[in-house]
Amino acid sequence: MIRGVLASRPETLPAYFALYKLYFRQSRLGEAEAAARLALDEAARQGGFPSDWHALESRTASWTAVDSPAHFYLFSLKALAFILLRQGQGAESSRILDKLAELDPSDCVGASVIRAYAAGAAIGEPRPAWPSKRFPGQNGP
Q1: CA angle 26–111–64, rounded 5-degree value
Q2: Cα–Cα distance between 19 and 3 in angstroms, integer?
Q3: Contact 40, 80 (CB under 8 A)
Q4: How confident is the model over 12-21, as pLDDT tens digits?
Q5: Contact 90/121 with Cβ under 8 angstroms?
Q6: What is the Cα–Cα distance from 33 to 93, expressed in whole angstroms?
Q7: Taking the C-alpha atoms of 116, 117, 118 and 124 in order, what is their torsion angle to the nearest 10 degrees?
Q8: Residue 64: closest CA among 91, 36, 103
Q9: What CA–CA distance (Å, rounded) separates 72 from 63?
Q10: What angle do CA 37, 114, 75 make, to 5 degrees?
């Protein structure tokens, strides 16, 4: 269904979010990464700036305009950093988080949460438990 929306209306940014989120929750990290990169490409196209995050600067776009393609780009870049971290690509994730700190010094998209998670993972702290699929009152493992 989501792929159908993107096939017919590729400018629909929330569909990219739904797709990479779906893949991530299904532990299909390679596909989540690909979907996040497609989201970056489309947001950059709509925002009129380069899709390569290495080329971006604070003056490239109005990053804080919440309903803008630029803000969606930052949000998707944060998602990419987390996906890469979960794939064991900590160095690349860290570089993205550094860029996010440069582009979003007020941390509007919450990249500091991913940075804290990465820091905990680097020193061997246990990962937070993901919500279980059980509902209150259910028995069993």
Answers
A1: 115
A2: 8
A3: yes
A4: 999 999 999 9
A5: yes
A6: 12
A7: 110
A8: 103
A9: 9
A10: 40
Say which amino acid occupies 32. Answer: A
- Find the helix packing angle between 69-86 and 111-122, rounded to 10°: 10
Q: How far apart are CA 89 and CA 58, in angstroms?
A: 25
Which tokens in the block code for residue 88? 């064991």
Other C-beta atoms closer than 10 Å to the C-beta of 64 total: 15
Residue 127 corresponds to which tokens in the numbers above? Answer: 């990962």
- The 10s digit of each residue's pLDDT in 60-94 is 999 999 999 999 999 999 999 999 999 999 999 99
pTM score, whole prediction: 0.84
Six token digits for residue 92: 């690349």
Residue with tokens 């209150």: 136
Kindly provide the b/e burial profile for residues 73-102, where b requires at least 16 CB atoms within 10 angstroms of the residue's own CB. Answer: bbbbbbbbbbbbbbeebeeebbebbebbee
